[in-house]
Amino acid sequence: MAVPNTQKTNFINNVMGHTSGLLDSINGLRALKAQWSAVDLANEITQDDIDVNARLAGITVANLSAVIGTTLTAIEVLMADGHETNITRLKL
What pLDDT score was predicted for residue 1? Predict the structure, then answer.
C-alpha cells in the first residue's frame, strides 16, 4: 500500500518541527548552564527556594544540578559526535 504524499509531507514536517524544538531546548539549556555557572547558582539556590512554589513539588537542587551538569554534558557529547550537524540540517 502506497503512502499518500500528504502523509509523507506531514511526517517530514513533523520531524523537522520536533528537531527544531529539540535544538532550541538544548540551546536554551546551554544558556541556562552559562547563567548557572556565572552566578554560582548551584550554591545560591536552596531547597527553600524550590519549596515555596507548589508547582515544583518533588524537585530538588540535586535534580537541577543533574540536568544542568551531567545530563546536558552527556547531550553535548552526543552533539559533538556529529549529531548536532544532523539536527541542524533539519532545523526549520
Answer: 82
Structural domain range at position 80: 15-87
Q: Does 3 reside within a domain?
A: no
Does residue 75 sit within a domain? yes
Is residue 60 within 8 Å of 47, Cβ to Cβ?
yes
pTM score: 0.85
User: Average of pLDDT values for 26-41?
Assistant: 96
51, part of any domain: yes
Output phi, psi for 59, to 5 deg.
-85, 140
